[in-house]
Amino acid sequence: MPPRPSAPVYLSIAGSDCSAGAGIQADLKTGCALGCYPLTAVTCVVSEVPGTVDGIVPMGADFVAQQIRLCLRHFPVRAIKTGMLYAPAIVEAVAAELRTSDAPLVVDPVMIATAGEPLLLRSAIRTYEEHLIPRARILTPNLDELVHLLPGETTRPADADTLTEAALTLARHYGCAILAKGGHLSGTTCTDVLALPGGETRRWEHERVCGISTHGTGCTLSSALAARLAAGDDLITATACALHYVSRAIADSLRWNQLDALNHMSPLRHA
Questions:
Q1: Mean pLDDT of 62-88
Q2: pLDDT of 269 over the 60 cut
Q3: CATH homologous superfamily for 9-261?
Q4: What is the model's pLDDT at position 246?
Q5: What's the CA angle centered on 140, arms 137 and 142, to 5 degrees?
Q6: Residue 21 and residue 215 in contact, taking contact as beta carbons nearer than 8 Å
Q7: Taking the model in full, what pTM does it have?
Q8: Which residues are catalytic?
């Protein structure tokens, strides 16, 4: 029997979202749409719908570590992404398990939801900086998370130029690439900035889609990045493909009872 083809494998370490718009549910849909085989390690279970977080129940740190260890032992994991980790003990456990892997790590520092809800215990932010971020290939903060991570007192970026400046500052501070998500800047277009520690920057602009309020865009973007890195793309190509994927999923979003959701089933072109 000839060998059967296999898909690139990546691991998502994130929370579970009962509305399936964010977290590992979004990661599974993204990975499959992009031709990968996504594995998952569940860090917490979140009771939420777009715009509302009713409750968060964390998994034990040892159990999270066990899931990661098993996946890394039995699968050829070619990229890893972290999403919602929630508590310091979970962050430390994740970082400890990832020391055994040289796969590129995408860190979505899930601290504050788009709607403003805190999704990370404040005590875990320093743990991120000490244990997880030094291992990262790229961070993908939204505007509020960017402000929390920047050293010193700073204000929220107001336009593409200040977003670029903030992303460069953070890239040099942490020594890794930063994809600063500017979807909530004012204007008719959405600007996202990739900043590298050496000073290089790239910008992408997409037309703003009005009248849609989705959640899970950050989870989907970081998962698409991991999927394309697992498939062998370089960082800039992976970023361009991931942003294209998210913009199409937003443009073709689904709606039920005034709740919007990204459409991962939309026909996509990854050029």
A1: 96
A2: no
A3: Ribokinase (3.40.1190.20)
A4: 92
A5: 160
A6: yes
A7: 0.92
A8: 181, 214, 216-219
